[in-house]
Amino acid sequence: MEILVLGLNHKTAPLAIREKLSIPAKEAPGLLKAMEHQAIFQERLLLSTCNRTEIYGVGDHPDHSVGRLKAFLSQYAHLDLSLFEDKLYVFKQPDSIRHLFSVASGLDSMVIGETEIIGQVKDAYFSAHESKHTGKILNTLFQRSFKVAKNLRTHTEIGAGKVSVASVAVDLAEKIFGDLKNIKAMVLGTGDMATQVAKAMISRGAESMIISSYHLDRAQALAEDLGAKAIAFDAYEEKIKDTDVLIASTTAPHALIQEKQVRAWMKLRHERPLFLIDIAVPRNIEAAIEKIDNVYLYNIDDLRTIADQNRASRENELEKCFELVRHQTQHFMDWLARSS
């Protein structure tokens, strides 16, 4: 019995291809059943995320299933095989084992060391297991992959430091205010970056959020999505006294918030700390404001610099991580040999 994986990911295929081959979780059991009817593998599992679609299989001669797998995906996606065949990779053991351990550990992710993937791998495994498409080999392999991912996170710094602008901004807010549960935040603008920061703050516990925009209808739509409150742009300063974090991301061609203005705000606030995140280009907040006591100002370049430093730190850990993966792969291969 051998383990094989066939798939594509963000490294091998553009989004236009990945989205056509993306498989919703609710469809996975039916597709696994269809693969069983076509005698594709004796054990099988589907892993599909926004960045990858992969099929893991176990059989006596799994490479004989590659052609049928390709045809299966082509039929599912209603996409001619010639349009994506060269985007596919096929790994046989031990490479298939090493690949899964790397995927589960976040080493193969677009953002190195991210933790969302381990939850997605677990969901894919539990779905396949529940529908009785996994057996002794895939059960042991995937359970081992969860341990490998935990081991890497425990013994390396691969997960240290946030590497997205939104997460870095929220990390800085936590350093200033501690627990974000009682923090009051306000967002000026409704662009993608502002939305990401707002969502990241809410995910860390921020419960009170105000959205303000020149376009009140857009503010109301975003506020409804986030469970926040929308106000007109000309009313936002009325809420500054009680605001702890202000996220500025409008399309204004000049600085909307001036040093003199913020000094007046701080008097109203009795010098209570104010965290300003300016992710607009051109900048919405005058740079001189960072000189004011108890005001913490970060612009998009500041956040990206921190994110890049964290990313470099993670990349420095890669060799240590891959060495651990190689060791665990050999350990699993030894188990396979004893079990056959």
Task: Tell me about this structure.
This protein has 340 residues and is an alpha/beta fold. It folds into 2 domains: 2-160 and 317-339, Glutamyl-tRNA reductase, N-terminal domain (Beta Polymerase, domain 2, 2-Layer Sandwich), CATH 3.30.460; 165-306, NAD(P)-binding Rossmann-like Domain (Rossmann fold, 3-Layer(aba) Sandwich). Helices cover 47% and strands 16% of the residues. It contains 12 helices and 10 strands. It has helices at 15-21, 28-37, 66-77, 95-104, 116-130, 136-155, 165-177, 192-203, 216-226, 259-268, 300-316, 318-339, and strands at 2-9, 43-48, 52-59, 89-92, 184-188, 208-213, 229-232, 245-248, 274-278, 295-299. The strands form 2 sheets. It has a 6-stranded parallel sheet with strand order 7-6-5-8-9-10. Strands 2-3-1-4 form a 4-stranded antiparallel sheet, sandwiched between helices.
Keywords:
elongated, 10 strands, Beta Polymerase, domain 2, alpha/beta, Rossmann fold, 340 residues, six-stranded parallel β-sheet, 47% helix
- The H/E string reads EHHEEHEHHHHEHEHEEHEEHH
| Helix percentage range | 40-55%
Spatial order of the strands in the main sheet? 7-6-5-8-9-10
CATH architecture of the largest domain: 2-Layer Sandwich
CATH superfamily membership of the largest domain? Glutamyl-tRNA reductase, N-terminal domain
Strand residue content? 15-25%
Mean pLDDT: 92
Largest sheet: 6 strands, parallel
Number of helices: 12
